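The instructor's notes for this session suggest beginning with a concrete chain rather than abstract definitions. Hand out the sequence below and ask the class to guess, before any prediction is shown, which regions might be ordered.
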Amino acid sequence: MPENSRILRVVILGAPNAGKSTLSNQLLGRKVFPVSKKVHTTRCQALGVLTEEETQVVILDTPGLINPNKQKRHNLELSLLKDPWKSMEDADLVLVLVDVSDKWTRGRLHPQVLECLSQFPQVPSVLVMNKVDCLKPKSVLLELTAALTEGVVGGKDLQVKQAWPASESRRAPGKSDPRASRGPQRLGWPHFQEIFMLSALQQEDVETLKQYLLAQAQPGPWEFHSEVLTSQTPQEICANIIREKLLEHLPQEVPYSVHQEMIMWEEDPSGRLVILQNLLVAKESHLRMLIGQNGQVVSQLAQEASEDLENVFLRDVQLRLSVKLLR
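After discussion, reveal the predicted structure:
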């Protein structure tokens, strides 16, 4: 650790599937967190560590914010409720990620995100509008910006004319909006310091955000060695990548019911990492689905996960997956 070390703890908040893990991976430059089109790929809080020269940025990749009803309905871990809130207690900065390609949710901040921001108003916040490459026409971005910020960024009014749908008899919310004191009815947050518009899949866009984060770091001791990339153990990274493949290849709720059991984790004489994991399911129909015709599904899962693991660990990986019925 250098004498003039700097540190920044960043929390990424957003609705499920907003692209938090994709953005985290791009900021880190390596695939550390699992990514899937299905919701709740990230099941618990995990840290990513970005270190450049004397500056370290600790990124807390949180589960998508959900309410207790959804947690019970989908039988999800309690960590999905608690981790995002717990992360805010140690945060120096919060990135609020919004998927602007989702026309059903993009017009307002997620209610749990707003509640979280209201509970921790002392933590500086930045709005990150993700997947802007999917949005046409671009004029919609200006309207969304006005809605999500209540017309205020960095303490200054935005000069944007908002075209509200006729069904909404509200004017574009601004600094003097009387709704500002009624948190639950809010659509946006008027205390963002900055706005970034990007596609988390485009490295050029992410680089601008990365340089901003590095510049926000304050003098202080590092929390991790400069070579550390994540707080996850290698076994946790492996389990997460396999779960990502389960989410990609299995339909509907099936992947959420698969239990993973690590059986073997060792290095052979050539330096290759040999991994054996059991995939346990409760129903015979799920067993057949996971194995696939002539074992094609489980073989593809193992092949794709092996390739990702080799990129993470920078070594050859032999991954064997065994599907079993829970007894």
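Then share the key points. The first strand starts at residue 6 and ends at 14. The chain is about 30% helix and 25% strand.
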